[in-house]
Amino acid sequence: MSTVDRDRRTTGWQIAGIAFLGGVGGGVVFPILPVIGMDLGISGFMIGLILSANRITRLGFNPITGSLLDRFGARWPVAIGLAIEALGTLAFSIGLVADSPGAWFLAGRVIWGVGSSLLLVGTLAAVMAIAPQARRGGMTARVRTAISLGLPAGLVIGGLIADGASANAAFLTATALSVVAALLAVVVLPPTSGRSPEPAEQRSKPETTREQWRALLGLKTLRIIWGANALLFFAVSGVLLATIAVLVDQRGLFVFGLGAEGSAGLLMAVLMSARAGASLAAGRVLDRTQSRTRLLLPAMALVAIGFAGLGLATSAVTAAMALLVIGVGSGGLTIPMLTLLGDVTPPHLHGRALSVYQWSSDFGGALGPAAGLELGRLVGFGPSYAGVGLLMLAMALPLCGLIARER
């Protein structure tokens, strides 16, 4: 391995570490807010709005993030995003002693949404800028997996600190983690990471921002990737995440004598672990083959089969097996789509393409909980999960289009 390749590999791992720390900071506060909110007399509706405010904020801010990354590179947007996340968690600390805690918590989640947009999109843009095409799958997989694992790690850390010390100690820990990650971003990220030079013909005739967005949105491959990603997040991060505890409670799928919430957490850990392992494996496969699309249809089928199996699950073991299958399938879908996005997008538009990718994630994840809970109430979770599985199978035609276009 050459010195340049070794440096790129090291920087890729460092970017993954920054992404992980940023995700941990967000996860720390998530399990605490509902409990603290109830204790402070905040209504259930307001608590739900607070928890979803960061995703709603990202829907509006993601396109701005993409433009900033394409113009300035990833170093300062990522560092500033982490600093903004630190301010958001400080707002949570203030909310504990303020007269209007709900307003402070909501403001904190909105602020956090801006910061997390810069972090999530920025770290992926940074690694794509330094990853050669032959190693893009593996390097992208590491960063994406770090993002995925940061949140559940934060959930555990936040819960332990809140139980052992106090909620404020957990919030201050999250603030400190975000500050440390911001400093690392300044030191680690190259000045031009996440920003690739425009081709010479575009420098001689600069495109307007509108023309750049029009060119990006006109790429059919990207539109398919964004749509498939929205559906995947609707299913897994939306419907499943919002309903798994209710399913466990209704069917008695308890694990190790825990209640519905604890059992659901352990079952989701199976999914997250499988997803992380499958993502890393998919990255290695992509770097060893010339095809970016060979995993898409099998992975899509696994997600559909997993949802059907979960709808039929009558024990914790069968539910865990179904979630493992969903995790493997979702990991096998995400990394090929991200890698293909990096291949087909003009390098100077990576930030914008990734911002729309993140927008599609947030849109699907925001729509899924309401749909999943309402369908579960009306028709039951078995038919609901079967319907989600059929939706996943509806991906087959557009994914076949991606395969045909690659050939």
Q: Which architecture of the largest domain does the CATH hierarchy give at level 2?
A: Up-down Bundle
Return residue spans where pLDDT drops below 50 for at least 5 consecutive residues.
none
Got a strand count?
0
CATH fold naming of the largest domain:
Growth Hormone, Chain: A
State which percent range the strand residues make up. Answer: under 5%
Q: What order do the helices and strands follow?
A: HHHHHHHHHHHHHHHH
Q: Pairing-aware structural class of the strands and helices?
A: mainly alpha
Largest sheet: none
Question: How many individual domains?
Answer: 2
Shape: globular
Helical stretch tally? 16
CATH superfamily of the largest domain: MFS general substrate transporter like domains
Distance between the termini: 30 Å
Give the helix level as a range of percent. Answer: over 70%
CATH class placement of the largest domain: Mainly Alpha
Chain-averaged pLDDT: 86
Domain Major facilitator superfamily (MFS) profile: 11-407
Protein name: Tetracycline resistance protein
GO molecular function: transmembrane transporter activity
Subcellular location: Membrane
Please outline the helices and strands.
Blueprint lengths: L2 H27 L2 H8 L4 H29 L2 H21 L5 H30 L5 H29 L2 H22 L11 H5 L4 H9 L2 H32 L8 H29 L7 H17 L3 H29 L5 H30 L1 H13 L2 H11 L1
Helix pairs in contact: 1-4, 1-5, 1-6, 1-7, 2-3, 3-5, 3-14, 4-5, 4-7, 5-6, 5-14, 6-7, 6-11, 6-13, 10-11, 10-13, 10-14, 10-15, 10-16, 11-13, 12-13, 12-15, 14-15
